[in-house]
């Protein structure tokens, strides 16, 4: 049974997945309470299904980008459990979790999360024979910059705040996801991790690093 932890942003999520089905899943807005909420929520979820940390066979964690503090809290618990119980640990990029839950579409996709200071972290994807494939690197953007970059019809999903919907609603090339399509589900984090676990793509817990959004140049 694999435990998935996503604390990358204010939206937090945990899931338990046995490789064939989702046993439990919980998603909520942490509003900065990651430290006091995460471990108790994991313990509660395990109790609900009659499990315990001793029954875990793997740990998955959102690797970033995201909130500096939030990411560190999730990674600390993930590494602690992996080391204490000698479990494989798999890190998954935050935006890949969101995109995993999106159906095939003819147009390209832009996945976003809030990056603070009225900016977003965005990654562009195209559909290929293996599903959604990222192109380029995560970018540090404003909603106005997103609008200016849209030269073709593009599906946009993720943490689209009221400002983003205001800017993009009348943009002819923007196809905005519905709120339910914008939630990062930890069960998809778990499924991505199972895919890697089955082919032995794990890392030493002490070597797994967080992915941070690159800062803007000083003149920007």
Explain what you see.
This protein is of the alpha/beta class and 220 residues long. The chain folds into 2 domains: 2-94 and 185-198, ATPase, nucleotide binding domain (Nucleotidyltransferase, domain 5, 2-Layer Sandwich); 102-182, Nucleotidyltransferase, domain 5. Helices cover 30% and strands 31% of the residues. The strands form 2 sheets. The protein has a 5-stranded mixed β-sheet, sandwiched between helices. A 5-stranded mixed β-sheet has the order 8-7-6-9-10. Strand 7 and strand 8 (131-141) form a beta hairpin. Helix 3 (94-100) packs across helix 6 (186-198). It is globular. The relative contact order is 0.20. The model has no long low-confidence stretch (mean pLDDT 94).
Number of strands: 10
Going across the major beta sheet, what is the strand order?
A: 3-2-1-4-5
CATH topology of the largest domain: Nucleotidyltransferase, domain 5
- Average pLDDT, all residues: 94
Total count of domains: 2
Assembly status? single chain
Q: In the CATH hierarchy, what is the architecture of the largest domain at level 2?
A: 2-Layer Sandwich
The helix count comes to 6
- CATH class of the largest domain, please? Alpha Beta
Based on helices, strands and strand pairing, what is the structural class? alpha/beta
The CATH superfamily of the largest domain turns out to be ATPase, nucleotide binding domain
Question: N- to C-terminal separation?
Answer: 46 Å
What is the CA-atom radius of gyration, in angstroms?
Answer: 17 Å
- Kindly estimate the percentage of residues that lie in beta strands according to DSSP: 25-35%
Q: Helical content, roughly?
A: 25-40%
Q: What kind of sheet is the major sheet?
A: 5 strands, mixed
Order of helices and strands: EEEHEHEHEEEHEHEH
Uncertain segments:
none
Q: What characteristic shape results from the CA principal axes?
A: globular
């Amino acid at each position: 049974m694999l435990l998935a932890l996503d604390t990358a942003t204010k939206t937090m999520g945990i899931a338990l997945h046995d490789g064939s089905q989702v046993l439990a899943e919980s998603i909520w807005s942490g509003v900065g309470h990651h430290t006091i909420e995460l471990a108790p929520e994991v313990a509660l979820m395990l109790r609900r299904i009659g499990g315990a940390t001793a029954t875990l066979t793997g740990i998955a964690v959102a690797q970033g980008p995201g909130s500096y503090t939030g990411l560190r809290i999730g990674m600390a618990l993930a590494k602690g459990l992996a080391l204490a119980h000698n479990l494989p640990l798999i890190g998954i990029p935050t935006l890949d979790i969101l995109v995993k839950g999106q159906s095939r579409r003819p147009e390209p996709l832009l996945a976003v999360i809030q990056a603070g200071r009225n900016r977003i972290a965005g990654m562009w994807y195209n559909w290929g024979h293996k599903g959604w494939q990222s192109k380029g690197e995560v970018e540090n953007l404003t909603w106005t910059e997103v609008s200016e970059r849209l030269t073709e019809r593009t599906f946009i999903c993720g943490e689209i705040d009221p400002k983003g919907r205001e800017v993009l609603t009348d943009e002819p090339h923007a196809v905005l996801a519905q709120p339910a399509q914008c939630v990062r589900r930890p069960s998809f984090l778990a499924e991505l991790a199972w895919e890697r676990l089955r082919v032995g793509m794990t890392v030493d817990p002490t070597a797994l690093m967080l992915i941070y959004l690159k800062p803007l140049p000083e003149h920007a």
